[in-house]
Amino acid sequence: MEERILGVLGGMGPLASAEFMRQLTLLTPAERDQDHIPAVLWSDPRVPDRTAARQGRGPDPLPALLRGIHGLEAAGAGAIAIPCNTAHGWIKGMRAATRLPILHIVEAAADALRAAGIGPGPVGVMGTAATLAMGLYQEGLRAGGWEVLLPTEEEMARLVSPGIALVKANRVADSHAPLAEAAGALAARGARAVVLGCTEIPLGIAAGPALPFPVIDTIEALALAAIRWARASSPG
Amino acid sequence: MEERILGVLGGMGPLASAEFMRQLTLLTPAERDQDHIPAVLWSDPRVPDRTAARQGRGPDPLPALLRGIHGLEAAGAGAIAIPCNTAHGWIKGMRAATRLPILHIVEAAADALRAAGIGPGPVGVMGTAATLAMGLYQEGLRAGGWEVLLPTEEEMARLVSPGIALVKANRVADSHAPLAEAAGALAARGARAVVLGCTEIPLGIAAGPALPFPVIDTIEALALAAIRWARASSPG
């Protein structure tokens, strides 16, 4: 029996985790249950708010993240995917605490940009205030030759942060308009594609009409990276 | 910190498990991540085919089911939900192997029938050939005063079994027509509602126009039962 199991450190938020599991399934070539990738999803929505912690307004999420990682290790996981961009701000602490490889969502997004034919030049990145303040994408995408355009502070406060909060509160349909407006503003300022760099954002964007410019769904990008890991590590 | 965690024994199939996690999230009243229910999903699509085993054509799934249950126990689960109807044919063996309560999907479906106002009388039940042969629903619903109508053997072979297989092969859109036709045939024979008693079936039914008679989505019914468990066991 194939023993490679994908560990998914999720719950941040739980709807994005469910969507990650759905895309992991739908993007895997399969004819029957047994062709799909074994996975354990540790969905712990109690992990302290990552943005609040980074802004000094709440407790450190690292202990809860490590509890999840150790739970996934105990369940037999061979690698870890984290469908929450902001949590990647703690990746050093997580990597120091486990021997398991952690698939990096920013690298997965860069792979997706390349696969979409978006070469060097300006791309937009939407995310939580903490993801943008920590520079997760600015640093990760600069190495690939992309120039990162961010929402303005006004757009963050009026559109992006409220849109993310609406998804976390199960008001997905209501989140479409503010998130689509913020993405459109980045495209209007020259972004050739917009990276939806918070896993709540693709859920909101998908709840309305398709946008007239390329977007990178970081849930899908991470699912594809996970499938590549699972397939590369399978015997035969 | 609230220590009650829902264990989800899934992967049978994996798309139904993802949908269970999605409905668990969307049906939970929540304003932020931390209001959602902590859960661990053990998604093991390698569990031997339940229908093949029951028909003597494949290995016993019980050892793989118990491996999942023990993994969920180790992860700290306080109860187990299994979003696969056919697997409930092994519930005695599972209950004998764990002290954790297992929420029964047939009881959840009966609760959903009552909540939908479907009183005693004929109701249709669709499911795998094994679920119907084991009488999971016939026995469970008779106690509540319902009379169970089943698809004919011809409908099972031409519509229901192929429809379920299409969902497991990620061909969800293609599964709608055969599954909807089988449900419609039960309604035409007098069923006042049709229980979608295999967790692949609601995925296929949702992929097309709504049916003109009540259906019971056993993924949703089990998610609601899990939310009731989580809320009843929460302090405060």
From TrEMBL, chains A, B:
Protein keywords: Isomerase
Enzyme class: isomerase
UniProt EC number: 5.1.1.13
InterPro entries linked to this entry: Asp/Glu/hydantoin_racemase, Asp/Glu_race, Asp_race
Residue stretches in coiled coil: none
Short name of any one Pfam family annotated for the protein: Asp_Glu_race
Single GO MF annotation: aspartate racemase activity
Taxonomic superkingdom: Bacteria
Keyword Metal-binding found: no
Keyword Isomerase: yes
Xref: PANTHER family: ASPARTATE-GLUTAMATE RACEMASE FAMILY (PTHR21198:SF7), GLUTAMATE RACEMASE (PTHR21198)
Family membership noted in the UniProt record: Belongs to the aspartate/glutamate racemases family.
Name this protein carries in UniProt: Aspartate racemase
Organism: Muricoccus pecuniae
Lineage: Bacteria, Pseudomonadati, Pseudomonadota, Alphaproteobacteria, Acetobacterales
